[in-house]
Amino acid sequence: MQIKKLVNQTVCVTAVSGAMVVMSLPVQADNWRGWNIHPPGYPNTIALESFAESVSERTEGRVHPQVYNNGVLGSQPDAIEQTRNGALDFANFNMGPMGPIVKETNVLSLPFIFNNVEHMHEVMDGEVGQRFADALAEKNLIALSWFDSGARSLYNTSHPINSPEDVEGLKVRVMNNDLYVNMIEALGGNATPMAYGEVYQSLKTGVIDGAENNYPSFQSSNHYEVSQYYSLTEHLIIPECLCVAKSSWEALSPEDQEIVREEAIKASEMQRQLWVDGSRESRQIVLDAGVEINEIADKSTFQDKMQPVYAEFIAENPELESLIDDIKASN
Ligand code: GTR
């Protein structure tokens, strides 16, 4: 369902007499509703708001996107469904909760699939990234550009994690995807899939012992206030999309599609730049608040534990093995 707005646009029409007259005619504008899980000031939020403003300006109000922050339009799995069926027009989605719907994207959720963020950018900006965009399009989501989401690390309320043994018995919140349940269980922990918005209270009340995320989310969600140990496992590097609902996309003229695509790419460039400083600032804020951050000298102990996760995934999705190989081979 689209919410339309009537705007007055001044147009020139040629009257019957042949003379040019200026009239004000109502023209339909699309008020695009955009889902964003993050608060104001977060790198993704700034980039999305800039996208919205530029699209509105360049289409002269024909497309008028508005960003709804803090996940007020629903949890991420709900918002994915709403964007797929056109109730929402655009969103910034992490590829983690996308896995249950677009199975190809699960490849991006395999632990340690990327060597570093640069590797992820190289893959997503190239031919392999286009394959993910094609898979998303089949499920009614048009991925116009890729945002950064850094590397996710484990944090918890009781001790620093240096080896997989330190995860044993911990109740760890994960995003909504069975792959992450397997990942935490392979480390000996108990995984609890849960919406992002419930994590703070669950950490505070001891429903869970820990979770995992990048620095900006660990800080902006205030999880650092109730979880003192942040351990640099960097086990997941997951890209995010700026996605538009297929129905909203197809309602645009080719010219407006071009504008929206260009602005989405500019927004991702802006987001990636903001991400670098934002991560540094968030790290400093949590350090100043007394969080203990530890590096992990040897991550291979964690990587080794992920072998059964890969084996099970490939056994269940043999057709995706070549995609894994292509990603691994590209760095
Ligand atoms: C953030 C990500 C969000 C959401 C969140 C979570 O890093 O940007 O889209 O997936 O993590 O843990 O649920």
UniProtKB/TrEMBL annotation:
User: What PANTHER family would the database entry show?
Assistant: DICARBOXYLATE-BINDING PERIPLASMIC PROTEIN (PTHR33376:SF2), PTHR33376
Residue ranges spanning the membrane: these are none
Does the record's keyword annotation contain Plastid? no
Taxonomic superkingdom: Bacteria
Matches recorded under CDD domains: PBP2_TRAP_SBP_like_3
What name is this protein filed under? C4-dicarboxylate ABC transporter
The UniProt record lists the keyword Transmembrane: no
Cite a single Pfam family from the UniProt record. DctP
Which UniProt key words apply to this protein?
Signal
Signal peptide segment: 1-29
UniProt source species: Litchfieldella qijiaojingensis
